Amino acid sequence: MSIFQGWGARSRILFNDKKGPWGLSSAGGGDGGDEPTPPPSGPWGNPPKRGTDGSQSTGGRSTVSSLDDFLRKNRDRFGGSGGGSGGGSSVPTNPRFFYWGLIGFVLFWLVSTTMHRIAPEERGVVTRFGRYSHTLSPGIGLTLPSPFDRVKKIDVENIREVTLGSAAEETLMLTGDQNIIDIAYQVRWNIRNPEQYLFELAQPDDTIKQVAESAMRAAIAQVSLQDAIGNRRGEIESRVAEEMQQTLDGYRSGVLIQGVAVKQADPPAAVNDAFKEDTAAQQEAGSYINQANAYALQLRQKAQGEATAFDKVYDQYKLAPQVTKRRMYYETMERVLQKVDKTIIEAPGVQSYLPLNELRRSAPKAGGQ
To answer: Per the domain annotation, does 108 fall within a domain?
Structure first.
């Protein structure tokens, strides 16, 4: 406080100079002993007046005359013992409230900036004076108060998606057989290493897009148009995901590629209809080929079954040739004669059997022919 009083004394010396802002002071007393000159009027038309407390007033309004008065008034205001000029009263306050409020604010600041709750799907990256310090695991973590330590929470389990190419714009790529394909695909990824993700890549999303496009172009350049449109999409997706992961690991990006899905793989719009007709014809041809193969397989299995049955009969024939011949003869005659009209004539000396009922049924058929 003595320092402030010293400044106040210096300011009084400046204010008590013979020549003030309104001209010469009324204290007078020149070198030649001349009569004191009345002070000139101030910038508002009247000379400055001093109040009973030593402060200058202008036009009836009290102003602070020195730094001491200003500090005294502010000290009294905060301490609760001073009043305003002109006999005004102020509301007294207790300085204990101010101290307890200050202590409460400090405690709240310490608790809120040193204790951090990290969710199960999050990691807390701690920077000390702007430099990486360590990473907080899920739970309650303690750090130095701010601004010494700062914590940035990163969600490491959220699956993010990046879509490249859409129906509104074409993403044309060159295939291995010198054809052009319009392709749209989606990349799914999440954060594996939060500190690398924050500090190694300036723009992670743009980097992932550029790496995905480069890997997709490299994979499409190694296959034909029909393979890219047809049944090799899965191979292309796995190849792109593997190539992206290797590149991002080389960048120390802290990113884990979860998968790549090709949403659209078509020829350019100008020739898309012709390619669809060609694809439909190929599918129809493939269907006919599959039907022929199925019929050939059926005949082959039937022939193999008959050959197996003949082998079994031959094995029995070798054991008893006469019995087998007679049995085969009976079975053959049974198959031949069971669908025709028959007349059975027995040996001589035995009355023959004449099937009259069968002859009656067959007579109209003969007459109709």
So the answer is: no
